[in-house]
Amino acid sequence: MSILVDRNTKVVVQGITGKEGQFHTRQCIEYGTRVVAGVTPGKGGQKMDDVPVFNTVAEAVDATGANTSMIFVPPVFAPDAVLEAAAAGLQLAVVITDGIPAMEMVRVLAQIADSELRVIGPNCPGAISPGQAKVGIMPGHIHQPGRVGVISRSGTLTYEVVAQLTAAGIGQSTCIGIGGDMLIGTDFIDCLALFEQDDETDAVMMIGEIGGEAEERAAQFIKQNMQKPVAAFIAGLSAPPGKRMGHAGAIISGGKGTAKAKLEALKAANVAVVENPAKIGQTMFNVLQK
Amino acid sequence: MKIHEYQAKDLFTAYGIAIPPSKLVVNPLQAYEASAELGGDLLIVKAQIHAGGRGKAGGVKPAKSAEEAARLAEEMFGKVLVTHQTGPAGKQVKKVLLSQGIDIQKEYYLAILIDRNTKRPAIMASTEGGVDIEQVAAEQPEKIIIVNTHHGAELSPFTAREIAFGLGFSGKQVGKCVKLIQNLYRLFVEKDCSLIEINPLALTGDGDLVPVDAKVTFDDNGLYRHSDIRKLRDYDEEEPLETMARHYGVDYVKLDGRIGCMVNGAGLAMATMDLIKLYGGEPANFLDIKGGANKQNVVNAFKLLTADPAVEAVLINIFGGIVRCDMVAAGILEAMKEVDVKAPIVVRIEGTNAEEGRKLLLDSSHDFVVAENLDDAAQKVVAALPGGDA
Question: Cis before residue A74, ω within 30 degrees of 0?
Fold first, then answer.
């Protein structure tokens, strides 16, 4: 099964003719993802390699049956791109774009609340179900099909974790980067719930970081709803308060959002917590042995 | 982005929110002139630095006359204030706000922020103003009112009324409170704020609601569309290396340790710092060269990192995905042509073109310590510190 993306995923790339859009579209196709269309307003009728380009998402969906969007358009236009994906009836939009103002996300997430669309991101690496589909910018080759789900607020740290899992012989069902911004469309709890229901996932690896209380709320959810084992790492134990650590959402403010508080909440929920980021693969290995 | 109290109060004025008469001064002469102009039998002298906790550190003082205010301001200039938010080095006072004292009957707390959980702005208020709100939240959570708003630039009066009645206002004060919150909300939305905080908000003897303090911070992602707000940035308040980093398009945060780090990706950069600390070292900085980094970014980032005199050893940790390791290696070598780095450099590169990258470094004339993996890298860099332990 896996979650969110699989063999049936048919991708339309919004912003396909830009530099990043082109590069990552090719990478996704090379991995085996079915990229069926691209959208760049004003470039309808052209092709990006073999992928037909349309002026609107609605046209792309009509012509190709696309069900998922991957969005590369710049921050100024990205909110509109998400609304267009929702209006075209898509089920999933993976928003790679970094730098969208939080107030824009407030507006967009409120406006799509009644639509079918689920947003992953923004400011995220995307989602991959190894061996099936890659809808994002992660390097495909480090992944291996398997039965551990990965959820992370980070990009390259996720690659590090996945590489450790693969090196330990642990494959992945689906890996999702949920994004490093303050406001994101899909959070830990949404993904945990999907993995709990997925019969091809045996355990979940969660990678959090400082800022907000998403990990604490995830801990509460795990305690009450999860049968499957969960392991977790939280980045930023050494981060000072009041300083934004790269990601818009990675900041300890008002004494809230410390790595320590998150680790304690997760421990209390019986999650296998690892403090050494080099031992994440080993920790999941131990969890699976139990 | 943070701004000063006086700048926040200027924004309040522009949004129709009355504040006590006040003047910003930057030298003693101005302080004497301004305090005489303000007059009155109570003046508050407030150091303008980007950190909370000024009061306890001696950065906020009452004066009973214009002369006393001017004298207190004169003493404050050049003084280094150390608060719980400045770090041990403290911050030097270069600007002082002189403000007329007001007749305070009661102090409240009022804030607008973005609620990550509900994915909407929220208004937070309390009858316990003038004190540390985090302490109130911990000890008397029932004294804090939180109301989520809806999207859109205008706040419906009923939402603001919930706060006004929640704070126990009645009669004319309800209307005044609603007006105040609506004006603040307009500022919050129109200027892409991430926080507006008034602590305390004073109820005066005349029944007016007046912000005594003002803190406004902005969403960095929204700055591109507010040239007026970008102009409010005070470079004196920022770490010079952080200002340079922003110019170079990399994310950098200065820390207190001796191990300089260069990493691609914010999460991996934090994890690298954590691991250094786990092995007894202290990171000198957070540095993310970012996903779309090109060779010039790497050159600039490396120069930035090694420009910090506190750095005695360097750890470079790259997990190449989209970023190619050979490009990063070439960037490091390029930078080393221009800067003479004496500190030992430990390199861990993994992922796309890692082999090529490692070969470039090992074949160069420099002595890099190449690490096997993340764990090995952290141990090696801590061991490489001159004098052993961190």
Answer: no
